[in-house]
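User: Sequence in, structure out. Go.
Assistant: Echoing your sequence, followed by the structure tokens.
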Amino acid sequence: MKALYTWGFILAIIVFGSAGDVLQAYSMKRVGDLGKLHQQHGLLAVFKRIFQTPTFFLGIAAMAFGFFSLLLALSWADVSLVAPASASLTFMANAFAARIFLQEKVDARRWIAAACVAAGVAIMAI
């Protein structure tokens, strides 16, 4: 039962962490070039533009849920399992999400790296 809770919260870390990363990336792409905005309108305009983007706050909320899932997973399992499993599987989920939701080009090298990471997690979990 303990393993089920652990892997359930690792899954929550992956889902919420990746959702947060994708939402933050989407938000910042909508905001645009911060350096240019800062040069033209100042620092206050940068903060205003970021905080007017609703997906920015959704991304923060998703990341917060992912963080609290990490805390719960660590209360049931060793950090030597939770940290590498959640980090590496989140890497894979981010590659998939970037390709699907952000239409980013994910090259073969990244997919091979993601597969190697998944294999490493599977070996570690045995």
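User: And one key feature?
Assistant: DSSP finds six helices and no strands in the chain.
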